[in-house]
Amino acid sequence: MSEHLTFSITLRPEPEGGYTVRVPALPEIITFGQDEAEALAMAKDAIELVLQSRRERGEPTPSCDSTLVRSVEIEASA
Q1: Burial class (CB in 10 A: 0-12, 13-18, 19+), 65
Q2: Which of 3, 37, 38, 74 has the greatest CB tally within 10 Å of its CB?
Q3: 14-40 residue pLDDT tens
Q4: Is 65 in contact with 7 (CB distance < 8 Å)?
């Protein structure tokens, strides 16, 4: 039986287009996609590669991603 893990990711729109992707639970991951679908696919590939590498080195695999992502609104100064 395969185990399913869920990871939070952040997608930051870039001025030149596309999205930079970060995975808070796996800080070594920074990837990019030209659109949201590609960014999500790149994130999935990167997560799988990092977890495989960690297993090969005998490092623990995060079992649960409890990262909370929220927005905070502030008043812009004039």
Answers
A1: middle
A2: 38
A3: 999 999 999 988 999 999 999 999 999
A4: yes
Note if the pTM is more than 0.90.
Answer: no
- Do residues 39 and 21 touch, judged by C-beta distance below 8 A? yes
pLDDT at position 22: 95
What values do phi and psi take at 9, rounded to 5?
A: -130, 160
- Per the structure, the count of domains in the chain is 1
- CATH number for the domain including 53? 3.30.160.250
Tally the residues of the chain: 78
In order, the DSSP letters of 4-69 are ------EEEE-TTSSEEEE-TTSTT-EEEESSHHHHHHHHHHHHHHHHHHHHHTTPPPP-------
